[in-house]
Design goal:
Blueprint: E1 5-6, E2 10-11, E3 17-22, E4 25-30, H1 35-41, E5 48-49, E6 56-57, E7 70-73, E8 76-80, E9 91-93, E10 95-96
Parallel strand pairs: 3-9, 5-10
Antiparallel strand pairs: 1-2, 3-4, 5-6, 7-8, 7-9
Length: 106
Amino acid sequence: MRVVEHPILGEAEPAKMIQIEVDGRLIPAREGEPIAAALLAAGTRVFRRTTKRNEPRGVYCAIGRCTDCAMTVNGRPNVRTCVTPAVDGMVVRTQQGLGTWEKAEE
C-alpha cells in the first residue's frame, strides 16, 4: 500500500511506474521512490538477516541512519534501501549477514 493522498502533504505527484527485480521476482515501483517503499508496497517486510542469529530485519529508522534495511543492490552489499531511489531494472537481493560483493556479469 502506498500513501497517495496525505492529509498534510496532499496528493502524490504523478510518477512513471518502473520495475525492479527483487530476489528473482519483478516488483512495481514509482520511479525515484526509495527501494524500501516499493518493497513495503509489494508486501515485503524482511530485507536482510543478521549474522549471528539469522534474525529478520526490515525498515527501522527510514532515514538512512541505521542498517536494518541494508540489501544487496546491483551486486553491491550494504545499500540502505530507505534512502536509495528505485531505478528501472535494478536487481535487489535479500542480504545475509554482512553481505558479499557479487561478481559482475561479463
